[in-house]
Each structure stands twice: as C-alpha cells, then as structure tokens.
Amino acid sequence: VRITLPNACQGKPVMLQLYTANGTIAKSIQLGSASQTESMSVGGLTNGLYIVKAICGEESAQQRIIKN
C-alpha cells in the first residue's frame, strides 16, 4: 500500500498503523523522517477491510482500504 502524507508531516517522525476492521493493530511502522509517499507491505495479511492511520505529532489522518 502506498501512503501519501500531508506536507505538515514530511521530514518529521511519523507512525503508520494498519488496523483491522475490528480495531486491532495488524501492523505498525515508525518512520524517522517521512517523505511525501511511503509504503507499507500488506502481503501477509488476509483479504478484507483495513484502516491506515498516519500519526505526526498531534495530527493524524486515516483512510480505509480493501485488500483483495
């Protein structure tokens, strides 16, 4: 999965979290200095609905994805 981060988060530490549909964390990545676009592998996960959340300081953004 490719994740595009807001300008405010670029060049800063960012935590990327992938949640399952029932709210448990399936994967978490800590980035020391985020770029505009980051990647997270979902190859080992089962098909279904997930939520990707990017946390940068006090700001966060999330997006739902479907893995087929």
Give a summary of the structure in a few sentences:
The chain is 0% helix and 56% strand. By secondary structure, the protein is mainly β.
Question: If you had to describe this structure to a student in words, what would you say it looks like?
Answer:
- The chain has no helices and six strands.
- Helix content is 0%, strand content 56%.
- It is mostly beta strands.
- The relative contact order is 0.33.
- It has a four-stranded antiparallel β-sheet, with no helix packed on it. It has a two-stranded antiparallel sheet with strand order 1-4.
- The model has no long low-confidence stretch (mean pLDDT 93).
- A hairpin with a 2-residue loop joins β5 and β6.
SSE layout:
Elements: E1 2-4, E2 14-20, E3 25-31, E4 37-39, E5 48-56, E6 59-67
Antiparallel strand pairs: 1-4, 2-3, 2-5, 5-6
- Class computed from helices, strands and strand pairing: mainly beta
Low-confidence stretches: none
Into which percentage range does the β-strand content fall? over 45%
Helical stretch count?
0
Helix content: under 10%
Query: How many strand elements?
Result: 6
User: H/E order of the elements?
Assistant: EEEEEE
Whole-Å distance between the termini?
Answer: 12 Å
Specify Rg, calculated over alpha carbons.
Answer: 12 Å
List keywords for this structure.
single chain, 68 residues, mainly beta, four-stranded antiparallel sheet, two-stranded antiparallel sheet
